[in-house]
Write a structure and sequence with these properties.
two-stranded antiparallel sheet; Sugar_transporter_CS; MFS_sugar_transport-like; 472 residues; 73% helix; Growth Hormone, Chain: A; 19 helices; Sugar porter (SP) family MFS transporter; mainly alpha
Length: 472
């Protein structure tokens, strides 16, 4: 399902003719990314209410929040193989169905255990969407626009995060600022989780309006249909026979890498694989998902009222979008490594300031003094901004570029798995760590941000301006 080196490309004079249609196709596929971001963040609005309703401690609460990541790992592992067997569109539809069932089930759970089950199902949908969206976009987009259209997936993720925060804020206002207040016959937190059914159904409907990937069609012998899709997205002027030959050449020259191809280094895996794992792990160990899973609860814990805490969470999401746009503008101009180092330094300072601000708490339920509270808010937004303009985008760009062709697919799979595990680790440990010492928790995250700087400088190779073959 992954794209590889291709035969020399032919001229496609009609590519721009159907650009509007191609953008629609790309946006429809990127709805999976929107749901990825939405589901990843929507639990933020329900954490405190779940704790209160089911009378659970920090450890159990963390498991319910983080368990979706176990489903995500399963979905990511299954998504690629399913797409090669059933087609890209069918996997989108399966993911949409899982999202829909998860949203409905999460809105009306009978108990804590089935709420966790619905979150696992939603996580499987997330994992599938995280694999199939970028692959489909890369396979359908005209080569002249592939880079820009490929950025739709990341943009959709951060927009999904922002929309979920805005929806949570609106529902909370309708419930009078009470997460357990009633709106439309449900408690506010239940409606927050249930609203995801709307984009989930939309994703499923849009999947019926976009064509199957030409690559999959050719792999299953439907060459005429593949030509029709190519003409649909690249314009009537495209040399259809040459394009089909180009895709067939790429498929024949593909090496389907396995885990065995990654073995051989001093520590079991090849050094370049360990570097990829390091990038994935550092991306999560700075604690970025704490900002989206727990931010509302975090602000409430330091004395900010629930309505304002949701508003601050939404503004953090807007900062996330702005930082992502900045990264898209500069990643090809100043390079991956400089951007990563700048982001690490900015995150380290911001996290250290948060740690100092939270150290002013005098008790578990005490509010921060005004000065420290204001600093904590500014530092939290700065942290998200520096992450978004660097590691949020750079890691995915570098993971797609840094591995030699012969091991790229398998190495990406290992690096992605490491990222889900690190994500789970941070998510599941934060409630207990913050109950122990919130300031100390942010010191730990700041330490990882500092450690990421020498890691990048010493072990990571710059990939700006280099072909994939040069990285071998």
């Amino acid at each position: 399902m992954t794209s590889t080196a291709q035969a020399p490309q032919v001229r496609r004079p009609g590519a721009s003719d159907n650009l509007g249609h191609v953008i629609f196709i790309t946006a429809a596929a990127a709805m999976g990314g929107f749901l990825f971001g939405y589901d990843s963040s929507v639990i933020n609005g329900a954490v405190a209410a779940i704790r209160d309703k089911y009378h659970v401690g920090s450890g159990t609460l963390a498991q319910v929040v983080a368990i979706a990541l176990i489903g995500s790992a399963i979905g990511a592992a299954l998504g690629g193989r399913m797409a090669d067997r059933l087609g890209r569109i069918r996997v989108m539809q399966i993911a949409a169905a899982l999202f829909t069932v998860s949203a409905v089930g999460s809105a009306v759970p009978f108990s804590l255990w089935d709420l966790a089950l619905w979150r696992v199902l939603g996580g499987i949908g997330i994992g599938m969407a995280s694999v199939i969206g970028p692959a489909y976009i890369a396979e359908v987009a005209p080569p002249a626009y592939r880079g820009r259209l490929g950025s739709f997936q990341q943009a959709a993720i951060v927009i999904g995060i922002a929309v979920s925060q805005l929806a949570n804020y609106g529902i909370l206002q309708a419930a009078g600022g009470n997460q357990r207040g009633h709106v439309l016959g449900l408690e506010a937190w239940q409606l927050m989780l249930g609203v995801m059914v709307i984009p989930a159904v939309l994703y499923g409907l849009l999947s019926f309006a976009i064509p199957e990937s030409p690559r999959f069609l050719i792999s299953t012998g439907r060459t005429d249909r593949a030509k029709a899709v190519i003409a649909e997205v690249e314009g009537a002027g495209a040399d259809l026979d040459a394009r089909v030959a180009e895709i067939e050449h790429a498929m024949r020259s593909e090496h389907r890498s396995t885990f065995k191809d990654l073995l051989g280094g001093r520590f079991g895996l090849l050094p370049i694989v360990w570097v990829g794992i390091g990038l994935s792990v550092f991306q999560q160990l700075v604690g970025i998902n704490v900002a989206f899973y727990y931010s509302s609860t975090l602000w409430q814990s330091v004395g900010i009222d629930p309505s304002s805490s949701f508003l601050y969470s939404f503004t953090t999401s807007i900062i996330n979008i702005i930082g992502t746009v900045v990264a898209m503008v500069f990643v090809d101009r100043i390079g991956r490594k400089p951007l990563a180092v700048i982001g690490s330094a900015g995150m380290a300072i911001a996290l250290a300031l948060e740690a100092w601000a939270f150290s002013a708490r005098t008790g578990a339920d005490s509010a921060l003094p005004h000065g420290q509270g204001l600093l904590a808010l500014i530092a939290a937004h700065a942290f998200v901004f520096f992450f978004a303009l660097s590691w949020g985008v750079v890691v995915w760009v570098m993971l797609g570029e840094m591995f030699p062709n012969r091991i790229r697919a398998a190495a990406l799979g290992v690096a992605a798995a490491a990222q889900w595990v690190a994500n789970w680790l941070i998510t599941v440990t934060f409630p207990s760590l913050s109950s122990w010492n919130l300031a100390g928790t942010y010191v730990i995250y700041a330490a990882f941000a500092v450690l990421s700087i020498p890691f990048v400088l010493k072990f990571v190779r710059e990939t700006k301006g280099k072909s994939l073959e040069e990285m071998g």
